[in-house]
């Protein structure tokens, strides 16, 4: 399934934008400098900060160790963002409620 390049139209913030606005920009760091401090590739950090990639648990730990960010709160933010994004497309997912075979037998009248 191809993913749209458009940002979701949700009000739940992406943690990348939050990190950019509350950590990277106030410290006056370039993406390259921040990537060096975190020990990650510049492109990987850039994609996260520009809300094109999600936050991994490893990146959250790096942000916590390097800048004192709250790893748990960042991961909650990512989870909330993912849930909100999935809810936007919930109507496109067609799945019927699963009913176990045993449950079907209980709802059918007995013939003996």
Automatic annotation (TrEMBL):
<keyword id="KW-0238">DNA-binding</keyword>
<protein>
    <submittedName>
        <fullName>Addiction module antidote protein, HigA family</fullName>
    </submittedName>
</protein>
<dbReference type="InterPro" id="IPR013430">
    <property type="entry name" value="Toxin_antidote_HigA"/>
</dbReference>
<dbReference type="InterPro" id="IPR001387">
    <property type="entry name" value="Cro/C1-type_HTH"/>
</dbReference>
<dbReference type="Pfam" id="PF01381">
    <property type="entry name" value="HTH_3"/>
</dbReference>
<feature type="domain" description="HTH cro/C1-type">
    <location>
        <begin position="27"/>
        <end position="74"/>
    </location>
</feature>
<dbReference type="GO" id="GO:0003677">
    <property type="term" value="F:DNA binding"/>
</dbReference>
<dbReference type="InterPro" id="IPR010982">
    <property type="entry name" value="Lambda_DNA-bd_dom_sf"/>
</dbReference>
